[in-house]
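Priority: medium. Attachment 1 of 2:
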């Protein structure tokens, strides 16, 4: 596991400098100081390595955004969303940079499918946010507002990442909140119709099954040492098998695991399953 993480960290540095396509497995192994054989014990190919990097970053990002959207007071929700977004970009700036670069010319169908799935999850989180913040008054323009917000995030992220600009995050967040409020209050000509939005948002809208969650929980339980996170995972598995805890207890157990780097995604999936 340690060697796999080392390869991911070092490969990410190279990808940030050169891009996915221009970086070879040989360059990665030379940079890591390992043999090709050691690389292939961890990853079947460079493409598999790239997909694992995507999963690692996007699962952390989506989980943090989803939690913020569902647990922040609605008066502070827009600010919390933009803060969480840019904090994540700053923490993972190398990956954020190459992700923005590479989405325009994806390496494979699998890359596209992964990104569409995460993009869909982000759409759902933003939709939940704007419905909480603005209520029914934005019903006719809410789907356009989703893509406007995503446009703000992508464009300002690119501006910051590729120009090495000093960032006053407070000012940036206030500016984006103001822009979003202006659009929500004054937009009158929607482009994305309910019919189009249904097509865009319905794909891959299936919850993970209880059986799949139990399998994931068992994997995590085997990975973790004794800790409050492991104990909480065990109790959540028990809740799936034989429900007995109140929603408040389930929410507390999810709080115990949500910040652990190896538990963020399972906490996201469980929040969705328990509708918390």
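Attachment 2 of 2:
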């Amino acid at each position: 596991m340690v060697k796999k993480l080392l390869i991911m960290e070092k490969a990410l540095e190279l990808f940030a400098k050169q891009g996915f396509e221009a970086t070879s497995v040989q360059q990665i192994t030379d940079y890591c100081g390992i043999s090709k054989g050691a690389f292939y014990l961890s990853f079947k190919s460079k493409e598999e390595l790239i997909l694992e990097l995507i999963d690692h970053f996007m699962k952390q990002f989506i989980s943090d955004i989803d939690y913020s959207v569902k647990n922040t007071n609605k008066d502070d929700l827009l600010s919390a969303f933009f803060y969480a977004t840019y904090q994540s970009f700053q923490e993972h700036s190398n990956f954020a940079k190459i992700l923005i670069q590479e989405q325009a010319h994806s390496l494979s169908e699998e890359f596209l499918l992964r990104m569409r799935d995460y993009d869909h999850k982000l759409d759902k989180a933003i939709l939940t946010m704007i419905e909480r913040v603005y209520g029914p008054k934005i019903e006719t323009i809410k789907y356009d507002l989703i893509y406007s917000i995503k446009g703000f995030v992508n464009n300002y992220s690119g501006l910051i990442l590729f120009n090495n600009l000093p960032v006053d995050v407070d000012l940036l967040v206030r500016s984006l909140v103001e822009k979003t409020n202006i659009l929500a209050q004054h937009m009158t000509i929607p482009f994305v119709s309910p019919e189009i939005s249904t097509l865009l948002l319905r794909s891959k809208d299936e919850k993970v099954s209880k059986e799949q969650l139990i399998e994931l929980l068992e994997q995590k339980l085997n990975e973790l040492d004794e800790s409050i996170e492991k104990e909480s995972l065990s109790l959540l598995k028990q809740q799936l098998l034989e429900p007995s805890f109140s929603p408040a207890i389930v929410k507390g157990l999810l709080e115990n695991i949500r910040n652990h780097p190896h538990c963020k995604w399972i906490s996201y999936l469980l929040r969705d399953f328990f509708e918390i």
